[in-house]
Write a structure and sequence with these properties.
D-Maltodextrin-Binding Protein, domain 2, about 475 residues, 4-stranded mixed β-sheet, 2 domains, 17 helices, alpha+beta, globular, about 15% strand
Length: about 475
């Protein structure tokens, strides 16, 4: 098994959702710098009733205006969505900078909507500070069209109180997490037999099922897409895929540890776990999900445990994803620089100054005051250095749980971090959703047949086009 240990990088958990600059045709770009005034707009601006987020943005804006009086800033509430993106792009109404997911980079860049920001990446010292894995995601043909805003790696999320009930804790009371797929099954069975709770929560809808299953399938050695010259071929009509779906089938019908509902969306996963009715799931521990667990379902934050995705016969992998900043291709150099100045001021850039330090500190302070969890790093996007030290210090300052509950998630020892599939990733998740639903709703399912049909469907309707 290939092993990969991360270097000391630093997590950027910036509180911002997106940043944007109003875009338009080339005449609008020219007008934006007349009389020495650079016009930009900040996208993803929170509504006024967003409390802490809105106040934070307003404070940032006040400080930005003091530092850059030649920049006129407008607020923009638009954030990236599949439903509105193409219409906005076609009508030149996209914000000049916004955030989107790792999976959307290739699509946006190939369509010509992303600006070349290579000069800014070099001038603002991203190259020497970014995680090499993320550089490879954002760079294409030697040029940068995006930069990371945040990153994550999927992990195993567990409820320590249920592990205590089955006696699966060490001498210090820490949960002993499953390290392999076999141990995951065994632990889920113990949970179900001794507590009556769902041993493992598996999403199945809205591409969440396909997203999580893709990572679990990697553990069995599944290859989903194979590049053949300039084309791509579906490669998952394989024994490894049959083994992966058979394991999921057995979890439902043989071991009966998945619960009765075969149609589970992301909200239902959080509900089952947060209310104490489920012991484990593979997912992304975002701030929003954790807050919902704690405030929506009264989950005790001291029982939150994060570990690595259990490995299997094909290796041990953790899917990485996140958000990137994208600048509209109509921006001129002054506008690009103004956007990078904003990103740096709010603590999302690699350079430290009093303003970025204050932004980092206030982010964790707000999380603490809101009763969320402060104490885990997860996947880090920066290399070791002053920027990492600043995040570590703020995290320790406002830590409100036992950080040892996250020690496995913060190291990723013996786990290979792996990017999502290179093309039609969201479409693949949709196809895999259907497979997962069929396996979990039909005890008489023909696993080989549905895999063959799904691979053929994915090839004809997506890869061939």
């Amino acid at each position: 098994m290939k092993q990969k240990r991360r270097t000391g990088l630093c997590a950027v958990l910036a509180a911002v959702t997106a940043v944007g600059v109003m875009s338009g045709c080339s005449t609008q770009t020219k007008k934006a710098t007349e009389d020495g005034i650079v016009e930009i707009s900040i996208g993803g601006w929170p509504e006024q009733d967003a409390n802490v987020s809105y106040a934070r943005y307003e404070n940032w804006l006040t400080r930005y205006n003091e530092l850059y009086p030649n920049v006129k800033v407008e607020k923009d509430n638009w954030s990236y969505s599949y439903d509105t993106f193409l219409a906005k792009a076609a009508s030149n109404m996209l914000p000049s900078v916004y955030t989107t997911f790792f999976t959307e980079i290739k699509k946006i860049q190939s369509a010509g909507y992303a600006a070349d920001i290579t000069k800014q990446v070099e001038n603002y010292h991203y190259l020497e500070n970014l995680n090499e894995d993320l550089i490879s995601i954002c760079r294409n043909d030697g040029k940068f069209y995006t930069i990371p805003k945040s990153a994550y790696a999927l992990c195993l999320v567990a409820n320590k109180s249920l592990f205590k009930e089955i006696g699966q804790v060490d001498e210090n009371g820490y949960a002993i997490l499953p390290q392999t797929i076999e141990e995951l099954t065994e632990t889920a069975v113990k949970i179900k037999e001794k507590t009556g709770k769902i041993g493992f929560i598996m999403p199945t809808m809205q591409k969440q099922g396909g997203w999580i299953f893709s990572n679990l399938a990697w553990e069995f050695g599944v290859q989903f897409i194979k590049q053949e010259g300039d084309s791509y071929a579906a490669a998952f009509d394989s024994q490894e895929m049959r083994d992966a779906l058979q394991w999921l089938y057995d979890m439902k019908w043989k071991h009966k540890v998945l619960g009765d509902n075969a149609f589970v969306d992301a909200n239902e996963v959080i509900k089952q776990f947060g209310s104490g009715n489920g012991a484990m799931f593979v997912g992304q521990p975002t701030e929003g999900k954790i807050k919902t667990m704690i405030h929506g379902y009264q989950f005790n934050k001291d029982n939150l445990v994060l570990g690595q995705v259990p490995g299997g016969p094909g290796g041990r992998y953790s899917l990485i994803g996140g958000d990137v900043w994208v600048l509209n291709n109509n921006l001129n150099e002054e506008q690009k620089n103004a956007v990078f100045d904003w990103i740096n001021l709010i603590g999302s850039g690699p350079e430290l100054n009093d303003d970025s330090l204050d932004s980092i500190d206030s982010y964790y302070k707000d999380l603490n005051q809101l009763g969320s969890v402060v104490g885990y790093k997860g996947l880090e996007i920066w290399k070791s250095g002053p920027i990492c030290d600043a995040y570590d210090e703020a995290r320790k300052k406002y830590c409100n749980v036992d950080a040892s509950n996250f020690r496995e998630y913060d190291t990723f020892d013996n786990t290979t971090l792996r990017s999502e599939e290179p093309v039609h990733c969201q479409d693949l998740y949709d196809v895999l959703d259907s497979l997962v639903q069929e396996v979990l709703s039909n005890p008489n399912v023909d696993i080989s047949s549905i895999i063959s049909n799904a691979a053929d469907n994915f090839q004809r309707n997506f890869l061939d086009k």
